[in-house]
Amino acid sequence: MAMGKQSEVGQGELWIAATALPKTPGHPFYQRLNAVLKAHGFDAFVETECARYYAATMGRPSIPPGVYFRMLFIGYFEGIEAERGIAWRVADSMALRQFLGYRLDEATPDHSSVSRTRRRMSVETHDKVFSWILTVLAKEGLLKGKTLGVDATTLEANAAMRSIVRRDTGEGYEAFLSRLAKASGIETPTRKDLATLDRKRPKKGSNEEWEHPDDPDAAITKMKDTRTHLAHKAEHAVDMDTQAVVAVTLPRADEGDPDTLPWTLMEAERQLAAVCEDTDAGKQLHAKPMSEIVADKGYHSNDSLTGLKGIRTYVSEPNRGRRHWEGKSDAQEAVYANRRRIRGQRGKALLRRRGEVLERSFAHAYETGGMRRLYLRHRNNILKRLLVHIGGFNLGLVMRQLFGKGTPRGLRDLLSPLCRQLFGLTEIIRRLGKRLEHPVGFQSRPPNIVRAA
Q: Which of 242, 249, 252, 244 is closest to 215 using CA atoms?
């Protein structure tokens, strides 16, 4: 047999009959997700909300709004960070083509078209899609709103520390170090000299003095792995009863937790009010939404507790030693009331559940969901992607309740043991069939032939 060689010139296009095209039954998870979206009128809703961004009669047909938001959902369910990766995955998968409604002879959207659509649509439009998903959760009984847990995490920005510049002069960081080296007596500093000088500096770069020219919203932050990096901060308000993310905000990473807490709670209150506009969804909410707030000790301060007057707080209290309350009667009352609650049985249970529920939302959205490392810049662009990304997480809760698994990987893990058992059963039947053909202890022999003398 001769060895075939790769042809350098590709074969020209041919007409292929529709019956000759490959077919796929589709991915069962995405088929069911499409059924849920269709049952609640997703495409009609987003087309109405996005109609003002498209020409009424003329113009080149662009990506349908339903396709655009579905592609961002795919980013969460498949764990793909970049829009370019989402476009590649969609073009490569027959099941995802079917999920988006594209035939095999149709071209799927390019990543540049997805980016252009995102830039043209406002943050408010993406926020309405997030609110629509919350309404679906409420109709399915997955949103109560009584007890909310709040926590924040850092997202690594798409910006390098070596590219930061001074806010006042625009001088780069490396040029700044070179100037310091020359002032210290090093006429021609090498990169090693600059690195040594940077380590010995008593004060590192601060957000008051430095910024990134291409992403000014990113802040210099120490990550959880002790690295210093430019980052953004995502803060979640999560329903402690159902694990649904009620609100997501994107404050600056250098803002303290007590400072960002009021804004996140205001956003959660607004989202719950939007859900109540739907009569059927509003009936599923608790009669007194946002009556309890749970948070870790990073949110504990006099101002944050007094600002939550009228709400039962369960905020872990750090050890600050003996405190003095002269002229701070309101703060003393709020701190002592919070202390009594967290020491009670319900308070201890809520604080234990806080770590479980909130960390799970971070793990699904940013670790397996692929948003821990950002590929977008500027706050509005990141918030648009984040709202739909977390909306995908909430849709996963609906899928988990209706079908048992909330992600395609979860469905695969559910079917894997069944496939292994089926394979084992098939192997047992095969071996049993061989034994029946050749029973143990019996050997077939040809009949004895007696020859005549």
A: 252
Residues 364 and 231 in one domain: yes
Q: What is the pLDDT of residue 168?
A: 83
Q: How many Å apart are CA 276 and CA 89, to the nearest integer?
A: 37
Helix (H, G, I), strand (E, B) or coil at 6: coil
- Residue ranges of the alpha helices (H) in 286-344? 302-307, 329-343
Q: Is the pTM of this model over 0.90?
A: no
Backbone angles phi, psi at 7, to 5 degrees: -80, 135
Do residue 348 and residue 295 come from a single domain? yes
Given a contact cutoff of 8 angstroms between Cβ atoms, the answer to whether 374 and 82 are in contact is no
pLDDT at 446 over 80: no
Secondary structure percentages of the chain, helix, strand, coil, to 5? 50, 10, 40
- Rounded CA gap, 135 and 143, in Å? 8
C-alpha 382/C-alpha 375 separation (Å) is 9
Does residue 173 lie in a domain region? no
Alpha-helix runs per DSSP H in 152-301: 173-183, 191-200, 257-276, 279-282
How far apart, in whole angstroms, are the C-alpha atoms of residue 268 and residue 28?
A: 33
Residues present in the chain in total:
453
Check pLDDT > 80 for residue 165: yes
* Same domain, residue pair 239 and 296: yes
Amino acid making up residue 264:
T
Q: What is the pLDDT of residue 4?
A: 46
